[in-house]
Amino acid sequence: MQPIGMSLLREVSPRLWSIRSSEQVALAKRAAQITAELQQGVKKPYKDVIDVSWGDAHRGGLKPLTFVRQVIASCLYPSLLNSESLPIDVQQKAQNLLGCCEGGSVGAYTSTCGIPKIVRSVSEFISRRDGGVESLPENIFITSGSQRSLMMVLKLFVQTERSARTGVLVPVPSYPYFNMALSMLGGVMVPYYLDEEHGWDVKVDELRRALHAARGHCNPMALYITNPGNPTGHVQNRKSIEDVIQFAAEENLFLLADEVYQDSVHDPESDFISYKKVLFEMGPPYSNSVELASFNSISKGYFGECGVRGGYVEFVNLDPTVMECAYTLFSTDTCASVLGQITLDILAHPPQPGDPSYPIFSEEIRAMKDTMISNVHRVQEVIGSLPGMSCQPIKGAIFAFPQLHLPPSAVQQAEKAGVNPDVWYSSCLLDEAGLCVGPGCEHGQREGTHHIRLCIATTQENLEEVLTRLSAFHLSFKSRFF
Amino acid sequence: MQPIGMSLLREVSPRLWSIRSSEQVALAKRAAQITAELQQGVKKPYKDVIDVSWGDAHRGGLKPLTFVRQVIASCLYPSLLNSESLPIDVQQKAQNLLGCCEGGSVGAYTSTCGIPKIVRSVSEFISRRDGGVESLPENIFITSGSQRSLMMVLKLFVQTERSARTGVLVPVPSYPYFNMALSMLGGVMVPYYLDEEHGWDVKVDELRRALHAARGHCNPMALYITNPGNPTGHVQNRKSIEDVIQFAAEENLFLLADEVYQDSVHDPESDFISYKKVLFEMGPPYSNSVELASFNSISKGYFGECGVRGGYVEFVNLDPTVMECAYTLFSTDTCASVLGQITLDILAHPPQPGDPSYPIFSEEIRAMKDTMISNVHRVQEVIGSLPGMSCQPIKGAIFAFPQLHLPPSAVQQAEKAGVNPDVWYSSCLLDEAGLCVGPGCEHGQREGTHHIRLCIATTQENLEEVLTRLSAFHLSFKSRFF
């Protein structure tokens, strides 16, 4: 027999050792530790830890939509449908949805690609959103969320078996999960830099530079975009999207459009336009050749149901043989949570004017819109007034990603401690002010620049406290280095 | 630009082509097609399709537990807590659970390994179940279900980078998902045959034969077991478990104990005993050296909440460095559905005698137990009386896995059609009698033997209809070949 615990250790898959435990995880652990200390009565200059490092509206105190919760609760516990207390459209919706569940129970498995009726609902939603562009249910796969969708789509084409590993063009800064998933599958991240000075614009010259630099050491096959941007808050206009599509067409790249923040555009001059809509409006040869996967989720926008888990991916222009392969691949997974699927159906078909639930539903959404617009203004105002911090306009999504203009002495001190300067800034902010933010290096940034990410989907009251803590800490931090 | 849809097709990851689209998926498609035909008014000798190919109690018409649904519904829609209609223990449980959710909402993300309080609940449950054997929260990871847990654990040690690929000993017959997950990761399935003639016994001689046969062409590192057995219905006794543990210790194998059917033992002479309990009762050197992962889920047993998605894995005796690696690996996933986590908490701490919900809860469980025992009797009785079909005792889990003794002419006819004989039998059963079962080849079986799998977690009424259709079809099928 081997000595205790030695057998597996020797054998843990080598690729695992390469997964870096993220700085965010370390900060979250420290935040939990501080919270425990506060609960034990340890004195600190703050009474609690405020955590704005997640993209999570409910964590920030924003409330779920009443109609959504009434329908899901009724599906779970259908006795509620016998009471008079729920609006009739809630009852009808729940009855309809239960009728699509095997055995009339949300506890039954569904088809691995989703309940067929809900897949059709999603296709109708997409088509309506895109002004009538056709959306075929057989191109839509429901998953437990966009992380899962992204992983499945990467599995479809990323390969390490060939001499040249698969490359994917990835924005810097970006959504860190994507890079991690790509590297776990053995793919290569090909970074292209968003133009911070111009509101985090996507520049085709930069895409071309990145692509050409990558060729030779990997096989670039796809281009990943987040629009509206996480963590950058930019929203691409039609021209910018057209440019990217044209580039993808010329270079034969599979477009991965992460559009989970499609409901979150705060800038009155900007609109969300889907990549699919632009692609179809460009006409042939683009509309019938550029391969596209578009992602959406119940975790973001007005729903904010991160904990319920649900999302979908729609494929466009994939060869039928590839789609067959995709179908087989998605079939290897268990179905997504039925409650997540139901929530997706509500997202696809929300209450309409005239429905009993419409007044409350639309009022809740209006209030949330107002909160977000007000939050954006306050964040830009306060951060804009802080010396040594600057923030591009936040047009969409739910984050501020300000740049920290750190004095060289601060950078040197962090580097001497062997820590990335923005991690060091974030750690001090957490320890001294009880505010947990995300360090910019988690998302990627141009060398020599430093950022932090804050979720601004939170109550106005909470945001004021966040800004107060951030301002006081920042001024004190700066004063130490001048 | 490339011709339409050619770019990705050429490049789809080669490993994907090796995923066989399962026979079960093909049968499910055919079942859906027949259902659609019936709805269009096409005349068939049956009015609907009954599908017993899934391990899914709610699909079979068994009802969810009232307490479970009341608590989850209240967590989703806390206004319910203001009504008088729900028992006080439901209200308390929901309040407690909401208190563990960020922002007091089940819509917020949780720690990727699960809500800490629920992880502790699970560890208390395990310790209570195992008569006091210690269970540490830090060794427990909550996932969206046991499929996900199995996949993550395989990712921990399966590797293709070394000269010898990782092998895992897998029972035949077995749970097909496991083999698929293993092969998707590039691991090698090392089959060991359960002894059908002796109630699907696990024999150490057979384990040894399989292991020795595998050495040389792969690196066998782990041993997968399902107990109670899927699809076989066997329940291992203490001696059998001890023998397997001793073998794993001698051969330095990581034990993967799939114990999701731990609540489903129907045979009065049998008990579920966990691998962990036996391991600890064997004492050193076993208890402090044999590496074990044990799996459980909310989808099986009395809960049957497949659609809600939730489960956990507990590791035992893993080196701290490996556990750190496991922690990093599990952190790459989003959290499991919060509603699944809440259901897991109820599984860990169900109502107790004296609680207002206890009488209904215990009555529902008693009724379900009675149904299962009655179903087992009826299945054994009816199948036992059919010529050319035989079934080992069903002591646990929720399936019957009878052997079909097909006449050589039937086998030849199937083979001439290029179809596995049990797939052919299952297709005819579906077409002619509207009954959808699982073909044995999906689970693996000794060459030359043929089986079908039926889920018996269903209402007594439904079971009678299943048995009537199966008997009539079987007799007619047989008569054609004599």
Automatic annotation (TrEMBL), chains A, B:
Pathway: Amino-acid degradation; L-alanine degradation via transaminase pathway; pyruvate from L-alanine: step 1/1. CDD domains: AAT_like. It catalyses: L-alanine + 2-oxoglutarate = pyruvate + L-glutamate. It is an enzyme of class 2 (transferase). Keywords: Aminotransferase, Pyridoxal phosphate, Transferase. It comes from the Eukaryota. Its EC number is 2.6.1.2. Homodimer. Belongs to the class-I pyridoxal-phosphate-dependent aminotransferase family. Alanine aminotransferase subfamily. This is alanine transaminase. It comes from Coilia grayii.
